[in-house]
Design brief:
By secondary structure, this protein is an all-beta fold. The chain has strands at 3-8, 15-20, 24-30, 36-39, 47-49, 56-59, 107-109, 116-118, 122-125, 131-140, 145-152, 159-164, 173-177, 182-184, 195-203, 209-217, 223-226, 253-256, 261-264, 269-273, 279-288, 293-302, 315-318, 327-330, 339-342, 348-352. The two termini are 23 Å apart.
């Protein structure tokens, strides 16, 4: 059964909302309180920027790291902006110029020490127009630790930081604010949530980056999308699951200039395979941009543990296996409140909530 729910990000989408398909909202946190984020896996070298808050990252094109003390920002706004990949958590803005191993964009892998050593300088411009120069000096792989520094463009207020990601491996990312100099543990444990309501930069069909508000999937939480389907549609297994970062995304709604409000496509259905591999249906009904409120409904359509369910002593079902009709027979005169029958893949093939006869 579909259950109505909602989340509210606040005016200007001020908060990120982490959501579990099984348990509902898990965590709400200020979306703008960080500037860069480091993937906590020891096997990753990914670094994100808060592009959803208007941050713009640019590679310094005029020289290598030897020019740290003499940055020339003439023509800064003509340099290409690097954004996080909207489809891949493992392709942050700092890696967008990566050419593949051993080049990871911001640095090069050292085959002797196994560290990634920074070979590029960056300019990080914030929404208020201020900017910092940034140098990711190194990731010490054996310690799962990043060393980086940043300063004002004129070299003043230089800060050197060490980020020990090993302390946060239960989370996908650990965050840092250059405005406050704080390390932020702002994300819930990765095994507690499935989707994230947030603002981020998407790439439109014409190739242009554009800030959008929508839904991103957790790592290892795939989903699929069905258009022009009825409210009773639940054939989720007829299409492969999409394991990218944004199979749900933002385009389940559009802005109507006539009513000056968002319209939600009520014939679109999503199916999300959560961390437990249970499959949930997700449909949207309202998007109120004034308060950042999303109204939607969810329902379990395929439990992962269907193969582990023990037969009840009160019933017989025959024939089993079957390719056509089956008979469910009560042994002790017990009539169930509802009956659901699935195939071996977990797809629901029959459901009834009004059981008048068991045969």
């Amino acid at each position: 059964q579909m259950v109505a729910d909602s989340v509210e990000m606040g005016a200007s989408y001020a908060n990120d909302i982490y959501y579990s398909m099984e348990n509902g909202e898990v965590h709400s946190v200020d979306r703008n309180n960080w500037d860069v984020a480091f993937f906590t896996s020891p096997w990753s070298s990914e670094i994100l920027v808060n592009d959803g808050a208007g941050a713009e990252l640019r590679t310094y094109p005029n020289a290598d790291t030897s020019s740290w003390d003499a940055i020339d920002t003439t023509g800064l706004h003509t340099w290409p902006v690097l954004y996080n990949d909207p489809d891949n958590w493992q392709n942050g803005a700092f890696s967008r110029f990566s050419t593949g191993h051993p080049d990871y964009g911001w640095g090069v892998y050292n085959t002797i020490t196994h560290d990634v050593v920074g070979d590029s300088l960056y300019i990080l411009t914030f929404a208020d127009g201020t900017a910092k120069k940034v140098w990711i000096l190194k990731k010490i792989s054996t310690q799962n630790t990043y060393i980086f520094k940043y300063a004002n463009l004129d070299g003043s207020n230089e800060v050197m930081e060490t980020i020990a990601c090993g302390d946060y491996t239960a989370k996908n990312f650990v965050y840092y604010s250059m405005h406050t100099g704080e390390l932020l543990d702002r994300e819930p444990a990765s095994d507690t949530w499935d989707i994230l309501f947030t603002k981020y930069v998407a790439i439109l069909e014409n190739g242009s980056p554009y800030p959008v508000t929508g839904v991103l999937n957790n790592v290892d939480v795939p989903a699929n999308k069905f258009n022009e389907v009825g409210s009773d549609f639940d054939d989720w297994s007829s299409m492969p699951m999409d394991s990218t970062k944004s199979p749900i995304g933002y385009d389940w709604k559009y802005f109507d200039m006539g009513t000056f409000s968002y319209v939600v496509d009520d014939s679109t259905a999503f199916f999300v395979s959560n961390k437990s591999k249970d499959v949930y249906k997700l449909t949207f009904s309202v998007f109120d941009y004034m308060v950042g409120k999303v109204v939607f409904a969810t329902g379990l359509v395929s439990p992962a543990n269907i193969g582990d369910v023990k037969p009840l002593d009160q019933f017989h079902i025959y024939p089993n296996p079957a390719s056509g009709s089956v008979t469910l027979e009560a042994i002790q005169g017990v009539v169930p409140e509802a009956v659901t029958i699935t195939d071996l893949s977990g797809k629901i093939v029959f459901r009834s909530e009004q059981v008048n006869s068991l045969t």
